[in-house]
Automatic annotation (TrEMBL):
<feature type="coiled-coil region">
    <location>
        <begin position="229"/>
        <end position="259"/>
    </location>
</feature>
<keyword id="KW-0175">Coiled coil</keyword>
<dbReference type="GO" id="GO:0003677">
    <property type="term" value="F:DNA binding"/>
</dbReference>
<keyword id="KW-0238">DNA-binding</keyword>
<dbReference type="InterPro" id="IPR036910">
    <property type="entry name" value="HMG_box_dom_sf"/>
</dbReference>
<feature type="domain" description="HMG box">
    <location>
        <begin position="69"/>
        <end position="137"/>
    </location>
</feature>
<feature type="compositionally biased region" description="Polar residues">
    <location>
        <begin position="169"/>
        <end position="197"/>
    </location>
</feature>
<feature type="region of interest" description="Disordered">
    <location>
        <begin position="1"/>
        <end position="78"/>
    </location>
</feature>
<feature type="DNA-binding region" description="HMG box">
    <location>
        <begin position="69"/>
        <end position="137"/>
    </location>
</feature>
<feature type="region of interest" description="Disordered">
    <location>
        <begin position="152"/>
        <end position="209"/>
    </location>
</feature>
<feature type="compositionally biased region" description="Basic and acidic residues">
    <location>
        <begin position="9"/>
        <end position="23"/>
    </location>
</feature>
<protein>
    <recommendedName>
        <fullName>HMG box domain-containing protein</fullName>
    </recommendedName>
</protein>
<dbReference type="InterPro" id="IPR051965">
    <property type="entry name" value="ChromReg_NeuronalGeneExpr"/>
</dbReference>
<dbReference type="GO" id="GO:0010468">
    <property type="term" value="P:regulation of gene expression"/>
</dbReference>
<feature type="compositionally biased region" description="Basic residues">
    <location>
        <begin position="51"/>
        <end position="61"/>
    </location>
</feature>
<dbReference type="InterPro" id="IPR009071">
    <property type="entry name" value="HMG_box_dom"/>
</dbReference>
<dbReference type="GO" id="GO:0005634">
    <property type="term" value="C:nucleus"/>
</dbReference>
Length: 350
């Protein structure tokens, strides 16, 4: 019984202490929170700053010309159409990706003669398409189709322009009614939060060879687009193959040019050495002729122009006649005199 008053008194002391703690005059009182002072934006503006998903725009359907000529097939596509059913019958468990991969491997390993047959057929089909397309562009059906295409294009552009004007007017009216943008104060610097629309890339299909630039407005994931894509891939493969061939030819020509350059340098060195030897021989001959003329100018030998001694102009004829005389008559006094003179000539200085 005595414990109850004590417990009750203890409970009153605890309550009083709590009350004293709540009413402590030394405790500083916090001011009310202001959004502009703390830099926190309202909930509505923070939600508005988040990007919202825009509905996907549907592209307008482009009218399809059913009367146009059938587009050509490439050699690879012809091989696929011919071999796909056979391979599917042989291996029915193959999926589409594995089937396409195996067909591509067979095409890459196909001999050149067999592959050339498909490529020749593709070239003939392409020539047929270009010829038919040229004739088709002169028909009334093509003119009517282009007229419908231009009308639809103009209507689509007009609709886009009106929609754009409506969006601009709505944005202007909304900006006039709503509150001004929230200013976030950080170190007394006002920053306006604004959101700009993300620019969307425009699809572009460049015209291929034999196509009209106006005919490239093709909707994606259609038969015409897939066929157009196949034509582009075929042209790209042909260009890559031609580029590889040109690179090989350039490598061969470069090696040939290096070999020709080395041979040219070698021939130039040989020509320079031969020129030096020729110059030395000419100088040696000139010195020899000078010594012979000086020694034999007094020995008169009968020549075609008359008997005379050795000179620089007739030295060859002179020595030839002297050699004939030495062969015919060994005891000729002219030969003996010339032999005695030549034995006394010092040829080591030449």
């Amino acid at each position: 019984m005595e414990d109850q008053p004590l417990n009750h008194q203890k409970h009153e002391d605890i309550t009083q202490n709590n009350g004293d703690h709540d009413t402590n005059p030394n405790q500083t009182e916090l001011p009310p929170t202001n959004v502009a002072d703390t830099g926190a934006a309202p909930t509505q503006n923070s939600n508005a700053s988040k990007p919202t998903k825009k509905p996907k725009k549907r592209k307008p359907k482009v009218p399809r010309d059913d009367t146009a000529p059938r587009q050509p097939l490439t050699g690879y596509v012809r091989f696929l159409n011919e071999r796909r059913d056979q391979l599917r019958a042989e291996q029915p468990e193959l999926g589409f990706a594995e089937l396409t991969r195996q067909l591509a491997s067979e095409w890459s390993k196909l001999p050149t003669e067999e592959k050339q047959q498909y490529l020749n057929a593709a070239d003939q089909d392409k020539e047929r398409y270009i010829k038919e397309w040229t004739e088709y562009k002169k028909t009334d059906a093509y003119i009517e189709f282009k007229k419908q295409q231009m009308e639809q294009k103009n209507s689509n552009s007009a609709a886009k322009k009106s929609k754009h004007d409506n969006n601009i007017s709505k944005e202007v009216s909304t900006s006039q009614v709503t509150e001004p943008p929230t200013l976030v104060s950080t170190n007394q610097t006002a920053v306006t939060l604004s959101r700009q629309p993300t620019p969307q890339p425009k699809p572009c299909v460049t015209p291929a060879a034999g196509e009209d630039p106006a005919d490239t407005d093709i909707p994606i994931f259609t038969d015409q687009f897939l066929q157009h894509n196949k034509l582009r891939e075929s042209e790209l493969r042909q260009l890559r193959k031609a580029n590889s061939d040109y690179e090989q030819q350039n490598a061969i020509l470069q090696r040939h040019a290096e070999e020709v350059g080395a041979a040219t340098c070698r021939l130039r060195a040989e020509t320079a050495a031969a020129a030096e030897r020729t110059a030395a021989l000419v100088a040696h001959r000139r010195a020899l002729v000078a010594h012979l003329v000086q020694a034999l100018h007094s020995v008169v030998v009968p020549l075609d122009d008359g008997a005379c001694g050795a000179t620089e102009s007739n030295i060859e004829e002179y020595m030839e006649k002297l050699s004939i005389l030495a062969t015919e008559t060994k005891n000729n006094p002219l030969v003996k005199q010339a032999r005695d003179i030549l034995n006394k000539v010092d040829l080591s200085v030449i």
